[in-house]
Design brief:
This protein is α+β, with helices and mostly antiparallel strands. It has eleven helices and 38 strands.
Length: 647
């Protein structure tokens, strides 16, 4: 090992470049077994963010299933998920550009099942006995009215003319239709405004007659104050599901009219259902459940015997596990760890043999570990005499160290959602900062998932207060430990995390800079000008609108720009329907008028979250350039300058 060079924090040269991140990184999701084959989705920034279904044969041959010109993505709820189903080599998928459902045989071009209309479909369940799909349909044919959601059936033999036959209608939202093994029952979830699926949902079951008509629905679980997640039928006719009725998302089985908790524990077997198709467990061929659960921010894998309730841990190197599914002879999931990026993992439970079929970043495995900063889970004191959680990453580079007596700048990450959580999986975007000499703390503020319902509910009525306090206290905690420079602390976040960022910069004085990625600056606009799925989300986070209008205004940074004193850079997709561009543009205009340093980087063709490689690269480099100008360091990278007004 060579002697370390001394250089200012932020100026270190790193092999983890923006070009490397966007060219060598893909998104992985939705692994599923199809006979002896294994399929999964890949989101490819280098192909404009296109999502492609990939199939792997038993011999290890991997090929794209989705042909050029198609993109496996649904826009139901705007966030999508659950965009395909596969059986015996035939794929059914929603296509992004027209939102039609297509059928694609093993050697065929995709052909449409649904018509070209203002209809969207997601969460496909196969009903092979009746040659149909059952799925969620979101109907936008009403023009300016709120779209209508329902469960419909689609004939798999339709020739582009089947809009769907309505099976269940009346609730505001539906998810997770599941047909049992003999085709005699259908289970599904529903919920209504103002609830979100992690707040209150209901699980229903109804009989299916020979023609596929539904009998009278029977309520199984759920209701006010109970979130039910991922119903799934067992071979014995029992219905499995996850419920947080005890304060923790645990696994249950409903059989003969009764529901029992299979293994009570203070751990989370569920997730906030931001997208369709999320899965934390699978029913294996022998009746056992392969399940993933989270404790204190770390995910673990286990086998659960429903008959005895015995939970047997499966040791894996993964600390993040999602997308659990049954596969050929074993279990499939997307797994990662602090030292390894996400991968499609095939595990054989009895032998514990593991194969990683695909990595989200192959280059990450080739990096010298001396460039990789591993997270330290920290619990720190916060307001109200409570504690909160975060993941802390120290600066790390195999070639550099900081000057004696100098402490590094700190970048506080506020995750989106806000009902979500920071991940421990190796993320090159985080290492982009730490390998250049910046410290990073990824805050699981009150309201985050993974710590039980009570922790999740800390944010009820307190968005813009609890999350902001926890981010501030995390930064101060690290400064008091002597880890970071209290005079060079920045906060960044996207979407809801962008709101926390702007609120912290406006209503607190802890940070000297900030970066908002499609962040919210005006809560009233979010309450009145957003999509159906989140239209009433703020009822719980802030208060019912318009009754609580004064509170919305009091929590909105746009109304208090006179309190801002720190430079801010804004990144915004111009096709964003979740947080429209005017949210950023109003804030930019206010900072410009006040004479504060401000930069605005809009992206054509981007929605809520950046998917195109060129834009992901530009956002990373522009943010680094911005911090360098504000904090007084010169990045080693050759970066195209971003215009910063008033600086």
């Amino acid at each position: 090992m060579t002697d370390l060079r001394t250089a200012p924090y932020g100026s270190w040269r790193s092999p983890i470049t923006a070009d490397l991140i966007v060219s060598e990184t893909i998104g992985l999701g939705s692994p599923v077994g199809d006979g002896q084959d294994i399929c999964w989705l890949e989101m490819r920034p280098m192909e404009g963010g296109r999502s492609v279904l990939v199939r792997r044969s038993p011999g290890g041959h991997t090929q794209d299933v989705t042909p050029a010109g198609f993109n496996v993505r649904t826009r139901v709820h705007e966030y999508g998920g659950g965009a395909f189903a596969v059986r015996e080599g035939v794929v059914y998928f929603a296509n992004d550009t027209d939102q039609r459902v297509y059928r694609q045989g093993a050697e065929d071009r995709p052909r449409p099942i649904t018509p070209a209309a203002a209809l969207r479909y997601a969460d496909f369940a196969l009903d092979p006995a009746r040659d149909r799909l059952i799925c969620v349909r979101e109907d936008h044919r009403g023009g300016g009215r709120e779209p209508e959601n329902c469960l419909v059936s689609l004939s798999v033999d339709a020739d582009g003319n089947d809009p769907g036959r309505v099976l269940v209608l009346g609730a505001d939202f539906y998810a997770s239709p599941q047909v049992d093994g003999d085709g005699s029952h259908l289970a599904w979830l529903s919920w209504d405004h103002p609830d979100m699926p992690w707040g209150s949902t209901r699980l229903w079951v109804a009989e299916l007659d020979a023609a596929g008509e539904l009998g009278q629905p029977v309520p199984v679980a759920g209701g006010p104050g109970e979130s039910v997640f991922e119903p799934r039928w067992g071979a014995d006719g029992g219905l499995y599901f996850v419920s947080d009725r005890t304060g923790w998302w645990n696994l249950y089985r409903w059989r003969d009219g009764d529901a029992e908790c299979l293994h009570p524990m203070e751990a989370e077997f569920g997730l906030p259902q931001w997208v369709f198709g999320m899965s934390t467990y699978a029913v294996l061929g022998d009746g056992r459940l392969a399940c993933a659960y989270s404790r204190q921010g770390r995910w673990e894998l286990a086998l659960l015997d429903p008959a005895s309730g015995r939970l047997t841990a499966i040791e894996t190197p993964c600390t993040s596990i999602q997308g659990v599914a049954a596969g050929p002879g074993g279990v499939l999931f997307i797994g990662g760890s602090p030292g390894e990026p996400d991968g499609v993992v095939h595990l054989y439970p009895d032998t514990r043999a593991v194969s990683v079929l695909r990595r989200s970043s192959s280059v990450a495995l080739d990096l010298d570990l001396d460039y990789i900063s591993r997270p330290e889970a920290i619990e720190f004191p916060t307001t109200g005499g409570r504690t909160a959680h975060a993941l802390y990453y120290r600066p790390k580079n195999a070639d550099y160290r900081g000057p004696g007596g100098e402490r590094p700048p700190l970048l506080v990450k506020s995750h989106g959602g806000p009902t979500a959580a920071a991940s421990t999986t190796l993320n090159l975007a985080t290492q982009y900062w730490t390998s250049r000499g910046l410290a990073v703390v990824d805050v699981n503020y009150g309201g985050s998932t993974g710590y039980g319902r009570a922790y999740r509910e800390r944010l009820d009525g307190q968005w813009g207060v609890v999350d902001v306090d926890d981010c501030v206290q995390a930064a101060r905690h690290l400064a008091e430990r002597g880890e970071v420079d209290p005079g060079r602390m920045a906060i960044r976040g996207s979407s809801a995390g962008g709101y926390t960022t702007l609120a912290a910069l406006t209503f607190r004085d802890a940070f000297q800079a900030g970066a908002s990625h499609y962040g919210i600056s005006e809560l009233e606009s979010l309450a009145t000008d957003t999509h159906k799925f989140e239209a009433r989300y703020l009822d719980r986070l802030v208060g019912p609108y318009p009754e609580a209008r004064a509170l919305y205004q009091a929590r909105s940074p746009i109304h208090f720009t006179e309190q801002l004193s720190a430079p801010v850079i804004f990144f915004q997709g111009l096709e964003d329907r979740v947080v429209p561009p005017n949210q950023a543009e109003k804030m930019v205009a206010a900072l410009r008028a006040k004479g504060l340093p401000v930069a605005y980087v809009p992206f054509d063709g981007e929605q809520h979250g950046f998917r195109q490689a060129a834009n992901i690269k530009r956002a990373l480099e522009a943010e680094l350039y911005f911090y360098g100008r504000v904090f007084g360091f010169s990045p080693a990278d050759a970066i195209d300058p971003v215009p910063i007004e008033n600086l």
